[in-house]
Amino acid sequence: MAVLSFGATWCTSCTSELKSLENLQAKFPKDLVVYFVAMDGRGKEDVKRTSRNTQYIRTLLDPKMAVARENGIRWLPVTLVVNRKGVDRGPGESAHANGTARKRSSSSSR
User: Fold this and answer.
1) Residue 27, in any domain of the structure
2) pLDDT of residue 90
3) How far is CA 19 from CA 4, 34, 82, 99, in A?
4) Which of 88, 72, 44 is nearest to 80 (CA)?
5) Residue 65 lies in a domain
6) How many separate domains does the chain show?
7) Cis omega before residue 63 (within 30°)?
8) Helical H runs in the chain?
9) Which one of 9-18, 52-61, 97-106 scores highest in mean pLDDT?
10) Which class for 33: exposed (0-12), middle (13-18), buried (19 or more C-beta within 10 A)?
11) Confidence class of residue 104 from pLDDT cuts 50, 70 and 90?
């Protein structure tokens, strides 16, 4: 299973979510791959600085937000979960550092 966390280094909610996803990745290292899809226009160096704080999460750069647009991402953070068959299981909820989930309103869903 893959988790794609769309966010930016300047977004405190995004970086807080990474801590929860880091714990999830560490708990299921063989069953899960977590990616932080950084939509930063600030550049690769800012993203690298944030990525150093995450041992298990892989980072992908999307500065022009092409991947985000392709997936209908219109807010930050958004987390998509994709199973082995490629079935999208998000962006209905976003994980938070306290372990809870926040339900997205249907008006902002794609």
Assistant:
1) yes
2) 62
3) 14, 11, 20, 10
4) 88
5) yes
6) 1
7) no
8) 12-27, 44-51, 66-70
9) 9-18
10) middle
11) very low
Q: What are phi and psi of 14, to 5 degrees?
A: -65, -45
- Whether residue 86 lies inside any domain: the answer is no
Give 65-86 pLDDT, tens digit per residue.
898 888 888 888 998 888 878 7
Q: What is the pTM of this model?
A: 0.73
Task: Show the domain range for 26.
Answer: 1-74
Q: In this structure, what token pair is assigned to residue 33?
A: 């791959």
Identify whether 105 is part of a domain.
no
Beta strand spans in the chain (E): 2-7, 33-38, 58-61, 78-82, 93-95, 101-103
Q: Are 76 and 10 in contact (CB under 8 A)?
A: no
> Which among 57, 50, 55 has a CA at the least distance from the CA of 5?
57
Cα(104)–Cα(56) distance, integer angstroms = 27
Query: In this predicted structure, what is the pLDDT of residue 99?
Result: 40
Domain at 1, CATH number:
3.40.30.10
Higher local confidence (pLDDT), 33 or 87: 33
